[in-house]
Structure formats: C-alpha cells, structure tokens
Amino acid sequence: MTSQLQKAELLNRLHTPGDPLIVTNVWDAISAKLVSEAPGVTALASASHSVSFASGVPDNEGLSVEDAIRAARIIVGATDLPVSIDFEKGYAADATGVGANVRRLIDESGAVGINLEDSLESATGPQRSIEDSAARVAAARAAGDATGIPLVINARVDTLAGGGEWGEAVTRANAYLEAGADVIFFLGLRNEDLVKRALDEVNGRISTIGAAGGVSLQRLAELGVSRVSFGPQTLGLALAALQRAATTLTARGDYPDDLSFAFDL
C-alpha cells in the first residue's frame, strides 16, 4: 500500500511532456477497479459529469459537496493507484470556501489530484474573472500545502469552449500556473495547430481531451502534451455497449460475448 503522499508525488511525475498520462475517466467503485486493473494503467481520474449522472443529478455541481466527497472516497477506496478527482468549481461561492472544501476532499477521500474549473456554470458559458479564478486555484494549493499532500492541480481553462479569445485563454492559463496549478487543462484544442500554440505559449504542462476525430493520442504525445483524458465519453462508451446488448437480448438475439465478462469487487 502506497501512502497518500507517495501517490501525490507519483501522480505529478506521471504528467510528463511527450509521455502523457492517459486517464480513462471513471465514476464509481466498479469502473475504478476495472480500469485500474487494465494493463498499463498508472493512475485514475473521475469525471464529474459521469459521477453526477450515475447519481441521478445534473452536472455542474448537481451534487452537494458532501455527496461529491463521498463519491470521491468510494472511487479512491476501490484502487491503490493515485486518483485525481474532478472537483468542478470547488463547490463554494468564494476562494475561502474552495480551500476548505479541497482540504476536506484530501483528508476525507484520499484524493491526490483535482480538476478545478473556471466557468460559472457549463464549460460553454461565462467564466469567473481571471483574478477570482486564480484566487481559487491559490486556495486549493494552500489547502494541499496545509495537509502536507502535494495535491496535483489540473486547472481548467474554458475560454475557447465558450467562444472566447485565444489571448484570454493563454492569459488565464499562465495566471493559474502562477497561482499554484501544476497542469493546465486547456479545453478547445481541436486541432494540431492549436495544441502547438498552447504548448508554445503556456508556461507549464498541458492536458487536453481526447476524442474520436481529434488529434491522435500518438500525435498528442509527440507534440508534448502531459495528460489526456476523456471526460464523460467513457461513461458514454460503457452505456452504448449496454444499450446495444439490451437491444440484442430483447430481440432474442445471440448472447453477446461480453455477457460472460468476469468481474469481482
């Protein structure tokens, strides 16, 4: 069993430019256990959208902070690997509240990393001011420091997703790094040129979303990205397979091969 401190240090090291951490996002105990046992997997990350939907509530902090921390504790408890938790906007109205909640997350769940968003609601909507967003990152960093756990902060920049300007996105990214973020989760890097620009203009490591039709995982690695995740797309992948199986079984079709998949908690 690795200590929480060791897990945090490992998670940070795994964010390597050119050899990115690939995280197949999870949402509950069984998804965390199964993904953690897949060959080559070295760390896990949750997706708030998936966690929320699995609980029957909408994304964008449809969960209370207590429920979010409880869900994080279940995921972390299902694996010995380092786990980064999508902590949305920190479940608080101000930076002080973000700091208090992040400290609770570290202490009560065992998480060693977080995603922290800078949008007010959805990724495509308005954002908090740069100053407020940076203060919230700084509060999360201070919370990690207070616990003695070097929390890995993946600070999300939603500017491009909301139709904003490139220059503002880069300004935000660098402000969050100065405030204590370890990695910038840069949404909207739809093509190779944008990935290159982000890597050139942001003063730190970059993480991005991988998706069918986007820049390939191999090319993202070659360009120097440090982390690739998939958000709620992995829940969609699992649900699509389940729906296909339900359709086949209801039609009295052949038993799907995966119906005999062996799993164990």
Q: Name the CATH superfamily classification.
A: Phosphoenolpyruvate-binding domains
CATH topology: TIM Barrel
Mean pLDDT: 96
Q: Give the strand order, joined by hyphens, for the main sheet.
A: 1-8-7-6-5-4-3-2
N/C terminus separation: 18 Å
Number of strands: 8
Total number of helical segments? 10
The biggest beta sheet reads: 8 strands, parallel
Write down the overall geometry. globular
Q: In percent terms, what proportion of residues is strand? A: 5-15%
CATH top level label: Alpha Beta
> From the alpha-carbon coordinates, what is the Rg to the nearest angstrom?
18 Å
Label the CATH architecture: Alpha-Beta Barrel
pLDDT < 50 stretches:
none
| Helix/strand order | HEHEHHEHEHEHEHEHEH
Q: Give the fraction of residues assigned to helices.
A: 40-55%
Structural class: alpha/beta
* Total separate domains: 1
In short:
The chain has one domain (10-252): Phosphoenolpyruvate-binding domains (TIM Barrel), CATH 3.20.20.60.
Can you characterise this structure?
With 265 residues, this protein is of the alpha/beta class. The protein has ten helices and eight strands. The protein has one domain (10-252): Alpha-Beta Barrel (TIM Barrel), CATH 3.20.20.60. Helices cover 46% and strands 12% of the residues. It is globular and about 60 Å long. The mean pLDDT is 96.
